[in-house]
Design goal:
The structure holds two protein chains of two kinds. Chain A is an alpha/beta fold. Among the domains of chain A are: 11-92, Orthogonal Bundle (Fumarate Reductase Iron-sulfur Protein, Chain B, domain 2); 286-404, Rossmann fold (3-Layer(aba) Sandwich), CATH 3.40.50. Chain A is built from 21 helices and eight strands. A four-stranded parallel beta sheet of chain A has the order 2-1-3-4, sandwiched between helices. Chain A has a four-stranded parallel beta sheet with strand order 6-5-7-8. In chain A, α20 links the parallel β7 and β8. The N and C termini of chain A lie far apart (65 Å). By secondary structure, chain B is an alpha/beta fold. Chain B has two domains: 2-40 and 231-357, FAD/NAD(P)-binding domain (3-Layer(bba) Sandwich), CATH 3.50.50.60; 74-223, 3-Layer(aba) Sandwich (Rossmann fold), CATH 3.40.50. Helix content of chain B is 30%, strand content 24%. Chain B is built from eight helices and 18 strands. Chain B has a five-stranded parallel beta sheet with strand order 11-2-1-15-18, covered by helices on one side. Chain B has a four-stranded parallel beta sheet with strand order 8-7-9-10, with helices on both faces. A three-stranded antiparallel beta sheet of chain B has the order 12-13-14, with no helix packed on it. In chain B, β4 (82-85) and β5 (91-94) form a beta hairpin. In chain B, α1 packs parallel to α7 and α5 (166-182) runs parallel beside α6 (202-213). Classes of the chains: A alpha/beta, B alpha/beta. The A-B interface holds A 17-19, 21-23, 27-29, 31-35, 38, 57, 68-74, 247, 249-251, 254, 266-267, 269, 281, 305-311, 314-315, 326-329, 355, 363 and B 1, 28, 32-36, 38-39, 148-152, 154-155, 157-158, 161, 200, 224-225, 230, 233, 237-238, 241-242, 244, 246-252, 268, 270-273, 291-292.
């Protein structure tokens, strides 16, 4: 009945060393969570060729993926956790609220149509109180605002005709909440003589996986794989500005679908800064940046760390003259996509975010740079610093340089 | 692309990355996971087969300087081994230990305090073994509760994080005092706790406990995770990141491209593809059999990192000129069982980074 497929290497490689538990943001602030080791490889051992055991503690997992980063034996712990979430949702049912949160894209579409009203309403305390009472959405946690002129309305280009061609996966956040990120990305690519096409796309599925809506997430995954493979097979590179979407396309589709298509697509996927760094290594990057004289802090989203790409945002931003950037060396932000909006998870979410906020204040930079829209949500609420996407900084550095010349 | 590519995220890898970064090198650290430092005691022992040298002393001093800078000072000196008690009550000799640790006296009275919730630390068991180790020592025991509802089996790390909070410390102290009074226990010279005296606020825990209990307190490391190891790992990782080390996490090195006895690049595998990482120098800190840098075969040890031929002791038959081996990667000719114990990791990391300037 429940998904027991598991990609190699086997969970049997787990030696119960506890590295994943030590690095688990939730385990570190709550004794209610079973922990990645217990709910991942240990539970899997117990139920393999046996009756399925549903463990409700899985609900507290955020799918941040730090367990995969810390595992010295290469066990893909988070994949096991995602399957446990799926099974738990099937057995215990899904709250209406979680169903809504999982469908971030539908929410984005609707909210952006009525953007001025939605935004106003989401900021009103009485409305938030009602949402808390009826839906279990925390009234203290602020929601990102929605934009009527979303990226889908602004940008409709379906093909590119330059030597290098980019198929852009924008993701829900840059489409409905912050189209300026998507526009900045297109501009940055323009400065590098690269045209950007925006293929048909659906939500990457991350909010669905995190809420146990695996079937629906896989449907979206199939859709995106088919849509983008048409492009990669014509020589396009897939570039993404949201680190969680990037991880879905690079890793989670492979883990959850285990299909040829998922593998084929993943090989062509780049984080936006990773792509620029690759251009730089090939001697193709336009480095005509204006001097900026900024001391920035960088917050690394968990799903950026998961990609095994070093720190491309810092690599690229460091090319701007006068731009000094330091990684604040913080752990998880605690927002974790839809997790931080849930009332019953508020204590955990804010406790996790506390050490992130401390790290940001300790470095005390002019502002914080991060790629993830949901991390930004936590950073905006918990720190005194402004948070900016690296593409916005880069677009500004290019524009200033152009105006000067 | 990088001046130095470090492979491995254990003590050797992190120290190499930090010290190379201090020299202004552009450093990448590639690892499939955390190193075995997390399963250690966090103490620095000497397991080398060759005797210590001046270089050992220099490296140890350098490590102590670093740890003081990172606000996690280490005590102890090279040349003087001290006996510390472990979570099983046996003594072990160590060289360097964190400020949360006090060596065990030869005689007098000690009190072993356990937590009901931490099954891995049993005061009666500690007492039995410690009394055999130190016949002139009077050992009392007591067990207190952390008074927390937990939906999982608690570890020393859970206890440490609970003790970071004032209200939990107060509960524990109150119980200890009450039990000591009720059972009329004599004032000990040392309190022995599991290795769980706080993570972020260890200094406050230490101060508050020793003042309130009227005697020094110590941590006895046992089943991982031990708080001293977690503190050490987290502070080294943070230091490396703040210095600009680029972490390639969840990334496995699956081979190397060697030309004219120089490594030109490492072949690395991430979730989505196989690619290359290029450095001028490569520091291999992937550990021995325990850390995964070596595997044991019928023909002896084999290397899992560069894919090059080794002798039966895990040493490269021909080591490329731009490859530096640190920690347990140096093979079992230098180390007992291929375990660094700490001091050998410190020394080889320090030596390797020194050689970068030459």
């Amino acid at each position: 009945m429940h998904n027991t497929l598991y990609p190699k290497p086997s969970f049997d490689q787990c030696i119960k060393c506890n590295a994943c538990v030590i690095d688990c943001p939730v385990s570190n602030v709550s004794l209610d969570f079973g922990g990645p080791k217990h709910l991942g490889p240990e539970l899997k051992r117990l139920i393999e060729n046996n009756e399925y055991i549903d463990d409700s503690r899985i609900d507290l997992c955020t799918l941040c993926g730090n367990c995969d980063l810390s595992c010295p034996e290469n066990v893909q712990v988070s994949t096991l956790l995602a399957f446990s979430k799926e099974a738990h949702a099937e057995i215990a049912g899904t709250k209406f609220r979680d169903f809504v949160l999982a469908n971030a894209e539908t929410v984005g579409k609707l909210a952006s149509v009525f953007a001025p009203i939605t935004n106003l309403a989401l900021k009103m305390k009485p409305v938030r109180k009602i949402m808390e009472g009826v839906m279990g959405l925390d009234s203290e946690r602020l929601f990102p605002s929605y934009r009527f002129k979303n990226f889908n309305r602004i940008y409709k280009k379906k093909t590119a005709n330059t030597k290098r061609k980019v198929a852009y996966y924008a993701g829900c956040y840059a489409t409905y909440n912050a189209p300026e990120i998507a526009e900045a990305f297109v501009k940055v690519m323009e400065y590098n003589g690269i045209e950007v096409a925006k293929p048909d796309q659906k939500c990457c599925g991350i909010p669905m996986f995190a809420n146990g809506q695996m079937k629906q997430g896989k449907k979206n995954a199939e859709y995106n794989i088919n849509s983008f493979l048409e492009y990669t097979r014509q020589g396009y590179d897939v570039v993404v500005t949201c680190t969680s979407c990037t991880l879905a396309l690079k890793k989670e589709y492979i883990m959850y679908l285990q299909s040829e298509g998922a593998h084929e697509l993943a090989r062509h996927v780049y984080d936006a800064d990773e792509y620029l760094r690759m251009l730089h290594a090939e001697g193709e990057l336009n480095t005509n940046f204006a001097e900026m004289n900024v001391k920035a802090g960088y917050y690394a989203p968990c799903h950026m760390k998961s990609q095994g790409i070093g720190n491309p945002a810092m690599d690229i931003l460091s090319l701007i003259p006068g731009y000094e950037i330091t990684d604040v060396a913080a752990g998880c932000c605690g927002q974790c996509g839809t997790y931080g909006f849930k009332k019953e998870k508020q204590d955990i979410s804010l406790s996790i975010g506390k050490s992130m906020a401390e790290a940001v204040e300790e470095v005390n930079a002019d502002y914080t740079v991060t790629e993830c829209g949901m991390c930004k949500n936590a950073l905006d609420q918990l720190t005194s610093k402004k948070t900016i996407h690296p593409m916005i900084v880069l677009a500004e550095a290019y524009e200033k340089a152009e105006k000067r010349s | 692309m990088y001046d130095v590519v470090v492979v491995g995220q254990g003590l050797s890898g992190l120290l190499s990355a930090i010290w190379a970064g201090e020299q202004g090198k552009k450093v990448a650290l590639v690892s499939k996971g955390t190193g075995k430092l997390l399963q250690s005691t966090g103490f620095m022992d000497f397991y080398g087969k060759k005797p210590a040298t001046e270089m050992t002393k220099e490296a140890v001093d350098k490590f102590k300087q670093l740890m003081t800078k990172l606000n996690l000072p280490y005590l102890g000196d090279f040349g003087s081994k001290v006996s510390v008690v472990t979570g099983s009550g046996y003594l072990k000799e160590t060289i360097l230990y964190p400020e949360t640790v006090v060596p065990v006296p030869d005689s007098g009275r000690v009190l072993v305090v356990g937590f009901t919730e931490i099954a891995d630390f049993q005061p009666a068991f500690v007492k039995g073994n410690l009394e055999r180790e130190r016949p002139e020592l009077v050992v009392d025991t007591l067990t207190v509760s952390l008074e927390q509802k937990s939906l999982r089996t608690m570890t020393q790390l859970d206890a440490a994080r609970l003790l970071d909070k004032k209200e939990n410390r107060a509960k524990v102290l109150k119980q200890i005092k009450a039990q000591m009074q009720k059972r009329n226990l004599g004032q000990p010279e040392l309190y022995i706790f599991p290795a769980s005296l706080g993570i972020e606020n260890w200094r406050t825990v230490l101060q508050e406990f020793s003042v309130e209990l009227g005697a020094p307190v110590t941590e006895a490391p046992g089943m991982p995770p031990n708080a001293p190891a977690v503190r050490l790992f987290e502070s080294l990782r943070k230091a490396a990141i703040r210095m600009g080390t680029r972490f390639y996490s969840d990334t496995e090195v699956i081979g190397s491209h060697v030309e004219e006895n120089l490594v030109r690049s490492l072949k690395i595998q991430t979730s989505n593809h196989t690619t290359e990482i290029i450095g001028r120098t490569y520091i291999i800190a992937a550990g021995g059999v325990l850390g995964g840098g070596h595997v044991m075969t019928a023909q002896g040890l084999k290397d899992t990192v560069l894919g090059l031929e080794t002798d039966a002791y895990g040493q490269y038959s021909v080591c490329p000129e731009n490859v530096l081996l640190v920690g347990a990667s140096r093979g079992t000719k230098e180390l007992h069982c291929g375990i660094t114990g700490g001091v050998s990791a410190i020394q080889s990391s320090y030596e390797s980074v020194l050689s970068l300037t030459k």
